[in-house]
Design a protein that fits this description.
The protein has 12 helices and 16 strands. Helix 5 (153-163) crosses helix 6. It has helices at residues 41-45, 93-96, 126-129, 141-147, 153-163, 179-190, 203-211, 222-233, 247-255, 279-283, 295-307, 326-334; strands at 2-6, 12-16, 28-37, 55-56, 62-68, 80-82, 120-123, 131-132, 171-175, 195-199, 216-218, 237-242, 257-265, 287-290, 317-322, 340-344. By secondary structure, it is an alpha/beta fold. Strand 13 (257-265), helix 10 (279-283) and strand 14 (287-290) form a beta-alpha-beta unit. It is globular, with a radius of gyration of 20 Å. The strands form 3 sheets. Strands 3, 5, 6, 7, 8, 15 and 16 form a 7-stranded mixed beta sheet that branches. It is 29% helix and 23% strand. One zinc ion is lined by residues 38, 40, 59-60, 85, 152. Residues 38, 40, 59-60, 85, 152 line the site of one zinc ion.
Length: 345
């Protein structure tokens, strides 16, 4: 089969590789019809994080089940399914408490499982991982585009909002205007937030934030952004969604948080250098909550809203490519020409 492989910073190639095989009793083979390039893929692409060379890439698969092992009960060949960025069993202590990202039988989509930016993936834990799309929606392209962000960014934005304690009537701020930040706005709106301040540097992305429900936009940088938020909120908000993972965004997050408030953080920490200074959190009794999003725990709830037409994160896909267009897709995201790239292998 053909799949994207990482060969070093800035170097993604489409190559012939071995097709994944059904080699676990609970496994399934999925033909990937839709997948995406993630903001987190840019870290190895930019050489900011280490990755084996060459290695298969992609972790946001959606497709058609081709084959299943005997023990699989929840899906069968022909079903349309999607899956979180993390493989989970659904049976262990952590899966049962909704913390699928700490699954003791976990796995990733790369390596022998195929890499989601390719033609086929193997899921070793089909029942615990795959989410079936009901048949009557299974071939509706528009609906599938709206479901695909549930593999990662929409559920991650939702985790930020939940972790920040957003509820009906809340005032909140969202730090970051990437795909996760925009989905955080959508999630806060969905949970009933009354005031949503989107903080970012790109006017076109802040336009989408407003479409998604942001009531205010702040495009100043650094201290000026903090001053602006404090000014329009009379001292900050009680709920902050941190959707970047950089030292500067974490600083902005606590600086716009009101004393006693909560920062929900979901950006993968990177470039933290000597670590995060906890003193401002201490001084303001600010709670830091969140972490890697247990996407599987939220999938059914978010899918139900997409299917009933009340949730649509698809505007984050500003570019669509086929498998051969994946290298170009990475470049477009790296240049910030595209917010998120949809791939149709
Ligand atoms: Zn992702
Ligand atoms: Zn588990």
């Amino acid at each position: 089969m053909r799949a994207a492989r990482y060969h070093g910073p800035g170097d993604i190639r489409i190559e012939s590789v071995d097709e994944p095989t059904l080699d676990s009793p609970k496994g399934a083979i999925v033909r990937v019809t839709h997948t995406a390039i993630c903001g987190s893929d840019l870290w190895f692409y930019r050489g900011e994080s280490d990755r084996d060379v060459p290695s298969r890439v992609g972790h946001e698969p959606m497709g058609i089940v081709e084959d299943v092992s005997d023990d699989v009960v929840s899906v069968e060949p022909g079903d349309r399914v999607f899956a979180p960025f993390f493989i989970s069993c659904g049976r262990c202590e952590f899966c049962r408490k909704g913390l699928h990202t700490s699954c003791v039988n976990s796995g990733s989509w790369s390596g022998a499982n195929g890499g989601a930016q390719g033609e086929y993936v193997h899921c070793p834990e089909a029942d615990g991982t795959l989410i079936r799309v009901p048949d009557r929606h299974a071939d509706d392209e528009e609906t599938l585009r709206s479901i695909l962000p549930l593999t990662d960014v929409m559920a991650t934005g939702h985790h930020a909002a939940v972790s920040a304690g957003v509820e009906a009537g809340s005032s909140c701020a969202v730090v970051g205007d990437g795909a996760v930040g925009l989905c955080g706005v959508l999630a806060a709106k969905r949970l009933g937030a009354e005031r949503i301040i989107a903080i970012g540097h790109h006017e076109d992305r802040l336009d989408i934030a407003e479409e998604f429900g942001a009531t205010d936009r702040v495009s100043e940088r650094g201290e000026a952004a903090v001053d602006r938020v404090r000014e329009i909120t009379n001292g900050g908000v009680n709920h902050v969604l941190e959707c970047v993972g950089a030292t500067s965004s974490m600083e902005t997050a606590h600086e716009v948080c009101r004393p006693g408030g909560t920062v929900g953080y979901v950006g993968v920490p990177h470039g933290m250098g000597e670590g995060l200074d906890l003193e401002p959190f201490f001084r303001g009794n600010i709670t830091l909550n969140g972490g890697v999003a247990p996407v599987r725990a939220y999938a059914e709830e978010l899918l139900a809203d997409v299917l009933q037409g009340t949730l649509d994160p698809s505007p984050i896909f500003t570019k669509t490519v086929d498998l051969d267009g994946v290298p170009e897709g990475y470049a477009a995201m790296d240049d910030r020409e595209a917010i998120k790239v949809l791939v149709k292998p």
